[in-house]
Specification:
Length: 143
């Protein structure tokens, strides 16, 4: 993901994750332990911090689907969001490139669908489409 001038088009990514989902929180911790080629800010979805940073974003949808926002306004959702997270990591960038190929894309999609199924079985319902209460997790910048 470099431009013709050799610059990386994304210098920083913000990952919006569901702080009420045990799988999402586990993945957050895993991401924080990885060596990042592109810095990741991990912010609870639909939190005050997320709303402040991205006022035009549909925050209700970020509670149902992983969403990653690039520093230049790029928005990645679902499978593409997971792939861009892997692309940001030193040890997984090669996998991310493979997951964008016709051979790899079904594996990425299956992973996201399996995670969504697990989450639907284990996550507490928010009720009537209202956003879940999101706990305060430090400064919201990946603490």
């Amino acid at each position: 993901m470099t431009t013709a001038g050799g610059r990386t088009p994304v210098a920083r990514l913000t990952v919006l994750y569901d702080a009420q989902c045990s799988l999402c929180v586990h993945v957050r911790h895993w991401l924080l332990k990885q060596r990042q080629l592109v810095p990741l800010d991990l912010v609870p979805a639909a939190s005050e911090e997320a709303r402040r940073r991205f006022p035009r974003l549909d925050h209700a949808s970020t509670l149902t689907e992983i969403t990653v926002i690039g520093d230049r306004g790029q928005v990645y959702r679902g499978t593409s969001a997971w792939i861009v997270c892997l692309w940001a990591l030193a040890e997984h960038r090669h996998r991310a490139h493979w997951l964008t190929t016709p051979a790899g894309r079904p594996f990425a999609r299956a992973t996201v669908l399996a995670a969504a199924k697990y989450r639907s079985v284990t996550a507490s319902p928010c009720g009537d489409g209202a956003a879940c209460e999101v706990p305060v997790l430090g400064s919201g910048t990946g603490d």
